[in-house]
Amino acid sequence: MQSWGRLPTAPQEGARISFRGDPLPSTDGRSMLPRGLGRSYGDVCLNDQGRLLLSRPLDRFIAFDPDNGLLRCEAGVSLAEILAFAVPRGWFLPVTPGTKFVTVGGAIANDVHGKNHHRVGSFGAHVRALELLRSDGTRIFCSATENADWFGATIGGLGLTGFITTAELQLRRVTAATMDVTTVRFSRLSEFFELSRACDATHEYTVAWLDCFAREGNLGRGLFMRANHAEGDPQRLSSERVRHPRVSVPFAPPISAVNPLTSRAFNALYYPLSRVGERRQHYEPYFYPLDGVGNWNRMYGPRGFYQYQCVVSSPEAIRELLDVVAKSGAASFLNVLKAFGDRASPGWLSFPRAGYTLALDFPNRGGDTLRLFDTLDRIVLTDGGALYPAKDARMSGALFRQAYPRWHDLERMRDPNFSSNLWRRVTRE
Amino acid sequence: MQKVLIIGATSAIAEATARCFAAEGATLHLVARNAQRLDAIAADLRVRGAPQVSVGILDVDNLAAHAVTLDTAEQALAGGIDVALVAHGTLPDQSACSASTEISLREFHTNAVTTIALLNALAQRFERQGRGTIAVISSVAGDRGRQSNFLYGSAKAAVSTFAAGLRNRLFARGVHVMTVKPGFVDTPMTAQFKKGALWASPQQVGESIHAGIAKRRDVLYVPGFWRLIMLIIVSVPEFVFKRLKL
After folding, report:
1. Taking a C-beta distance cutoff of 8 angstroms, is the pair B219, B135 a contact?
2. Where are the domains of chain B?
3. Options 2.60.200.20, 3.40.50.720, 3.30.1490.20, 1.10.10.10; which CATH number does B3-241 get?
4. Is B221 a catalytic residue?
């Protein structure tokens, strides 16, 4: 078992949790860590010398109210399974990340966000309640009003407060399975900020792709994508299916297929060749283009890859970050920029906060890559921003502790028998 | 809509099969040992579309309790049982069985005697109603004895042979009997094994069983390639086979 970034890691041992009423396996003196579908990129879902509690068998629904969209389910249910169930009934996820292959428990523990953060906040803002199973066997039912401190510690709590067994989610209504999407080209970074300001008021979903090889006058050029759920006839929802092409990367090539050459080519071609304008498309290719390619992370070869995702408060910091990346010649393949809103999450260690989030993918080229990240870190640190633990495999403890000042509170609430590679790394002095 | 009885309903394969029936709007009656686990599964099936799901508690090793359990099931599924799936079982440790006759016989009891008892009792009831399908989960392990798990294999061989005879007897009465022979399935029962390319998911197996029942298949290997693998294994002459490490 590895994490999604496929960086080299120690062998991991897992124990399946099949029924929510069963006790957790005994600790044998080793630490435990819940793990869902393993889509986090770095070491937040790894626990060397410990044991992973595999939540995927907990994939049962508990109750669904078709009138108000409240869904109770076990924590191992994937977002894909919720969509398959809910969309034909006229309901959609309130927040979805860029892959539907994550579990509800993982979405809560990492307090994931989506392209509608500026409107509705993070995933955790739509969790009504959850149940936590501690290693001593106690079960804690928590919500914003009941055991609120456990609720706040667990949302964005990186799986450390205990094992989430069940959760109650507030879904959002849809009348169609399709999206009305508009793609606009912008030729410099300042245009992104203008577009973002204008469109965040009119569109539920906004995000931009950047050409990270563009420099100087063209720095920060890219494609701005804005979308709303289409309006349709709810009666037709159950018959709206998509034939999503599914291919898979069968094995990792001996060297990364993503390198400065291919990234430059992709970035250079994607900007001018992308289809701009309006179109209506099914939610699957809109939200999850990469889910159509199974094991796409293998493209980065045997050494794996890093994703660098930060949030900063100022447009200037974004400009500085892009400038450093463009000058480094490093090969970020997919570069995503989005404005976050100011809706607070109930989670104490939630990553999203008002500002701009930038996500960059880099093949693991050892020291060169890490040195670039150190330079980027300094910009984030000066800005007072944060890195996203779900994507991280290397941030310094100092940066983490500045960005997440409530880490002490989480440490206090942490299950004494739970730990992770990431937690040991960033809390070490 | 169909009325479905599942015995051993907390097994991963049974649960996956039950979800297929629930999505079609079937009424279900689930039987297993653990009430809490049954309730979790029943709630899930209701959300997925089953209008009514009832549960019954039974330790199959207690043969005396079988009749009451089946009576209760018949009452819960008033109007006749369309499908009965017998899915309970364990995976005995062969070395423990070889070391202990007591363990061997206990495991044989759970995996063969109780299954045959339930099949026989179900057959009587299905014969009276003159319709329906009885499906039983056997295993590819029952096709030939191998040193690594022949206690399990011999129990499943007994089940397969019994089911074949029952299929033959009930054919003329309008009742269908389907033998399911899964290969390696990634379930809690096989959690300690290393998984390779031959392994199937419980979902895959459940969907095949559900489809197989609809098509009234006789012997269902799941996944289908196991029919070929077992054909080869069964064809190896005994003087060669006994020398193999399987």
Report:
1. no
2. 3-241
3. 3.40.50.720
4. no
